[in-house]
Design goal:
The complex is a heterodimer of chains A (120) and B (304). Chain A is 64% helix and 12% strand. With 120 residues, chain A is mainly α. Chain A has a 3-stranded antiparallel β-sheet with strand order 1-3-2. In chain A, a hairpin with a 7-residue loop joins β2 and β3. Chain B is mainly α. The two termini of chain B are 16 Å apart. The chains are: A mainly alpha (120), B mainly alpha (304).
Chain lengths: 120, 304
C-alpha cells in the first residue's frame, strides 16, 4: 500500500512538472530533439531512470506544441515511423521563465515547512 | 486487466489500442504513432538484445500500455480545456439562442471553410483524378508501380493536412500524426496492405467528392452572404438615396418597386438579419456534419 501511495503522489506531482522539464530540456538543447532523444536525456540525467514514465512525455510534447510553446517538424527515419523534432518557441521561452519562477517560489515555500519539521 | 506483458511491438501497440478503446480514433492514432516511434528507436538502440528482451524493460521506462493510455487520456482533457475558446454562455431565451450564434467563433470559421472548400475541392479533385488516371495509364510500364505508390503517399499527406484544416475550422479532433503502416513487413506486403486498406480508397473518394461538395458549400455561402447583405444594406441605401446624400435623390431603384415603400424597408432589413443569422447556423451545422463525414472517410477505424 505504501508503494502505491508513493506512486500516486509522484504522479500527481509530475502533472505540471513534465511540461516544465520538457521546456527546460528543449531550451538548453542546441539542436532540435525528438521524443525518444528527450526521454533518454531525462533518463541519463538521473542515473538511467527517469522519474517520469517516458511514455507520458509524448502527449505533453503534443500539448505544448498545440499551445504554440513548441514548434515541430517531421523527419523520415530508418528505424521506424517518421520522427517529430521539437524546438522551443519565443512564447515557450517566456512561459518557461514564468514557470521557473513559480517552481522556485513553490519549492522554497515547501522547503521552509519541511526544514522546520527537523529543527525544533 | 491482468494481461500478460507484451512481448513484441505489435503486441504492445495492440494492447495500447485496447486500453484506449472508445477514445477518439484520432487520439488512438497519435498514441500508437508515438509508442511505435519510441519502441523502434529503443530496439534500434539495443542491437544486441532481442525484441522480447527490450520489451521486458519497456514497462519500467516507457510505461505499460495502461499507464500510457491514461497519460493520453488526461492530457487530452487538459488540452481540450485549454485550447477551446471558453464556451460562451448562450442566453437561455429563444431569441438569445438564435442570435447567440454570432458569438460562436466556430460559425465564422465554418463559413470560411465553406468558401475555401471550392478551392481545396478543385485542387483535391484534380489531384485525385489525374493521379488515378495516370496510375492506370502507366500501369503497363515499369514506372507505373512507383508512380502509384508515390500518388498514394501524397494522398495520405493531403488527408492529414485536410484533417488539420478541419480541426482548425470546426474544432473536431482529427489526427495530428500521419498513419504509419508499420515497417516490420517486407516491401511488397506493405504495398498489398496499402491497396487492401479501406482508408486508401475512402480517402480518394473523399478527395473526389470534395469538388461537388465544395461547389455546393461555396454557392450556399456566397449566395447566402450576398442576399442577406443586400437585404440589410438596401434599405439603408434607399434611405440615403431619398435624403439626397448621393446627389440627386431618386437615382436608386429597388425592384420590385413595392420594396421602396416606407413600410417595406424595415421588413427588408429584418429579413436580411434573419437570413444572415440562419446562414451562420447553417454554416456551423455544415461544419459539424462535414467534420463527421471527413472523420469517417479519412481516419482509420479498422484497428482495435
Amino acid at each position: 500500500m505504501d508503494d502505491s501511495n508513493a506512486k500516486k503522489f509522484q504522479k500527481e506531482l509530475n502533472g505540471g512538472l513534465v511540461g516544465l522539464v520538457l521546456l527546460a530540456v528543449l531550451d538548453r538543447s542546441e539542436e532540435d530533439l525528438y521524443g525518444y532523444e528527450i526521454a533518454k536525456r531525462l533518463a541519463s540525467a538521473n542515473d538511467g531512470t527517469s522519474i517520469f514514465k517516458e511514455g507520458t512525455i509524448y502527449p505533453v510534447l503534443r500539448a505544448l506544441s498545440a499551445g504554440d510553446l513548441l514548434t515541430s517538424r517531421i523527419v523520415p527515419s530508418y528505424s521506424g515511423p517518421p520522427r517529430r523534432y521539437y524546438r522551443i518557441t519565443e512564447q515557450g521561452r517566456a512561459v518557461l521563465a514564468e514557470w521557473t519562477a513559480i517552481w522556485r517560489s513553490t519549492a522554497s515555500f515547501v522547503d521552509r515547512f519541511l526544514e522546520q519539521g527537523h529543527s525544533p | 486487466m491482468n494481461r500478460s506483458a507484451p512481448r513484441s511491438i505489435d503486441q504492445y501497440l495492440k494492447q495500447l489500442r485496447e486500453e484506449l478503446a472508445g477514445e477518439d480514433p484520432a487520439l488512438i492514432q497519435d498514441a500508437t504513432y508515438d509508442a511505435e516511434e519510441y519502441l523502434r528507436a529503443e530496439i534500434a538502440a539495443h542491437p544486441d538484445k532481442s525484441e522480447a528482451d527490450v520489451l521486458e524493460i519497456i514497462a519500467s521506462t516507457y510505461g505499460a500500455p495502461d499507464e500510457v493510455a491514461g497519460a493520453y487520456r488526461d492530457t487530452e482533457v487538459k488540452v481540450k480545456a485549454a485550447m477551446n475558446a471558453p464556451a460562451r454562455r448562450i442566453p437561455a431565451s429563444g431569441a438569445g439562442k438564435f442570435f447567440g450564434i454570432f458569438l460562436d467563433p466556430r460559425a465564422y470559421t465554418s463559413l470560411f471553410f465553406m468558401i475555401l472548400s471550392l478551392a481545396t475541392g478543385i485542387l483535391y479533385f484534380t489531384f485525385a483524378v489525374t493521379g488515378l488516371s495516370l496510375s492506370a495509364g502507366l500501369a503497363v510500364l515499369i514506372v507505373g508501380v512507383p508512380f502509384f505508390l508515390l500518388f498514394i503517399a501524397v494522398t495520405r499527406v493531403i488527408s492529414l493536412a485536410e484533417g488539420r484544416l478541419i480541426e482548425a475550422m470546426t474544432g473536431v479532433r482529427m489526427p495530428r500524426r500521419p498513419l504509419h503502416p508499420g515497417s516490420t513487413q517486407p516491401f511488397w506486403s506493405r504495398v498489398a496492405h496499402m491497396l487492401k486498406d479501406r482508408r486508401t480508397w475512402s480517402t480518394l473518394a473523399y478527395l473526389v467528392m470534395m469538388l461537388p461538395l465544395g461547389i455546393v458549400y461555396f454557392v450556399v455561402a456566397v449566395v447566402g452572404l450576398a442576399v442577406s447583405m443586400a437585404f440589410i444594406f438596401a434599405p439603408l441605401a434607399a434611405v440615403a438615396d431619398r435624403a439626397g446624400w448621393w446627389g440627386q435623390p431618386g437615382q436608386m431603384h429597388l425592384s420590385p418597386a413595392w420594396m421602396e415603400s416606407l413600410w417595406a424597408l424595415p421588413l427588408l432589413l429584418l429579413a436580411g438579419v434573419l437570413l444572415l443569422t440562419a446562414l451562420m447556423h447553417l454554416a456551423r451545422g455544415v461544419g459539424r456534419v462535414h467534420a463527421a463525414y471527413a472523420k469517417a472517410l479519412l481516419v482509420d477505424r479498422s484497428h482495435g
